[in-house]
């Protein structure tokens, strides 16, 4: 039997068992760990070229619209305006946003002021010598940007007659700070904070009569008036696969909100790629709210030090008494999400650790039983060479176990992997299930090979691309599905990847019920509820 067929049968069997109720305790450890033998066909997944139609500036008009969620009743509409093509007599510093629940009569109005930030261009090796696909710039173009000889006085210390030979292959080069051709100027950045919104209500918005959109708010914490769907993804990037995952997230997952566990644009200090990324993502992000988390590509894969991230993406840190945008907490319906930072100090003396203790203390499990934590770098992942990032796990896992965290969501390693409930490197029914979802389609391709044999805590792993869907039904039951989205072209309704004859291109490739059993695991109760 073909092994993929076996895998498919296993999935259907699981679903049948579940639907007949035979898996009433689905969290019990299943004996078989599984490595999918699906291997994504060797297709290019390069950055989309700058001339791609989806990445183009709207030349002064509102663009890059994206929604951030701060509370069930508080949403930030972010958008930008690229003024490069406007006459220099124009500086549209203000924008007017109107919004309301009646589309034909938007009764709220806000006037917003623009902000702008600058960044030093860093010419990453990926620009001109990517491992796959075509470069964004070639080395001659980079040399030209670096070269100050045409305008600097020869005696001036910035004088530099840079040639191609001076650009080291496969290494980042940063132009000197007083080379103006290396200064990125962001478009005008606007962030509109809409407050006191009604829960579970569709709002319509209009920006300067140029852009209209809508979104639907989330329920209040503690309210469960139907299943809640949460979209999960990480390590997105801007390739054709990223675009397909984006479209899949919008149309097939159709979530109430989305969590992105770090690594957004892969701009890596070639800053214009933040603009192209938000343009590519706009269909999803202008209508579905995100809860953001930062990864290394927001921080130091290229020396961005969070600047683009900080200016563009709003996080609920003030709402959760955090001193920094880097970690925060959020609750809606039956779910409480804590977002941590893999790249901020996490040792037990750190601000992050002290804040986390307080954040966990504030969780009300009677109101929001599902405690979900997201950050970027996995604590458990069985891809070869990913075991070295264990310091954060050593510092914080005891605390998360003590509070009975149900689910940990991470990215960074470009595969899909699901663990059984795990604690202290061993399966443990009262530990958290950890999902690695670093496979949303960035240019780096899947991270393989896996460690052999598969660790006992690893339930399922596959080295291809896709997104996650979590549906929370009630206080005890949630269902998780991972959908492979490996197709190269998104125009077909029944998508088939060339070379992929497995016929599974868009079936849920892995799924599981998550069941909270507080008799078995009293750590999932509030300390005061435990007897
Ligand atoms: C992206 O997909 C389109 C077809 O939809 C194809 O023409 C193009 O070459 C692909 N580009 C990259 C960079 O993969
Ligand atoms: C929406 O606004 C229009 C135009 O003002 C009005 O005629 C209509 O009654 C409103 N609808 C509701 C449900 O309030
Ligand atoms: C640079 O990277 C390319 C693509 O990965 C590789 O083929 C080439 O050998 C590398 N060059 C050097 C000098 O490392
Ligand atoms: C680099 O790109 C520019 C602009 O596309 C082109 O004119 C030039 O010939 C290219 N140089 C090399 C060495 O490929
Ligand atoms: C810069 O280098 C090029 C190539 O080596 C040379 O032809 C040119 O004269 C140099 N320019 C200056 C201003 O030194
Ligand atoms: C809300 O916006 C989406 C995306 O722009 C659009 O497809 C949809 O028709 C809008 N819904 C309503 C009710 O206007
Ligand atoms: C704090 O962390 C240090 C270093 O890992 C460890 O030696 C110490 O026991 C920890 N203290 C507490 C109170 O957990
Ligand atoms: C965790 O367990 C695996 C076996 O499942 C073992 O190979 C690994 O060394 C252990 N790691 C630590 C940090 O104990
Ligand atoms: C919770 O949801 C699951 C899945 O839909 C269902 O089987 C179960 O009966 C529900 N439990 C309660 C208490 O409603
Ligand atoms: C989908 O796009 C591909 C690549 O652009 C093209 O070859 C194919 O004919 C298209 N299929 C349909 C159904 O339009
Ligand atoms: C919960 O766990 C307890 C103790 O392990 C077990 O007896 C009970 O059957 C479980 N309940 C459910 C609904 O799985
Ligand atoms: Fe990463």
From TrEMBL:
Q: Which GO terms describe its molecular function?
A: acid phosphatase activity
List residues of the Calcineurin-like phosphoesterase domain: 246-416
Q: Which UniProt keywords apply?
A: Glycoprotein, Signal
Q: Does the keyword Glycoprotein apply?
A: yes
- InterPro entries linked to this entry: Calcineurin-like_PHP, Metallo-depent_PP-like, MPP_PAP, PAPs-like, PAPs_C
Q: Name one Pfam family in it.
A: Metallophos
Quote the protein name from its UniProt record.
Purple acid phosphatase
Q: Which organism is it from?
A: Cyanidiococcus yangmingshanensis
